[in-house]
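Hey team,

Filing this mostly as a record. A colleague (T.K.) asked me to run one chain through the structure pipeline before their review meeting, and I want the input and output archived in the tracker in case anyone asks later how it was produced. No errors, nothing strange. Just documentation.

Input sequence:
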Amino acid sequence: MALTRNFKQTVIERVERDPLFAKALLDEAATLFLSGEPETARLILRDLVNATIGFEQLAEITDKPSKSLHRMLSQRGNPSMDNLAAIFGAVRHWLKVAFDVHTIEAA
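Output structure:
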């Protein structure tokens, strides 16, 4: 019989012991949003929120209901840019990181 682990629990445990992993998840979520893959970005961001700040704390910081934040970061969620910026800002602040944006000029 194969041993399996709950993916979400694995992410939470990895984030707790490896701050660089948490920062990499935040970077990946931002990159995916900017690259036109918002569904995957929302799911990664949701897992990161669960593993770090938590939805109740995020609700307090963003002044948004926890239930609404859960919906925003669901696979079919549709957060406004203001809400998305607030979520990214809260997680970024929690992780104590800054974004360093690089652009590539089209040929």
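Quick notes for T.K.: Residues 19-95 form one domain. The chain has a mean pLDDT of 88.
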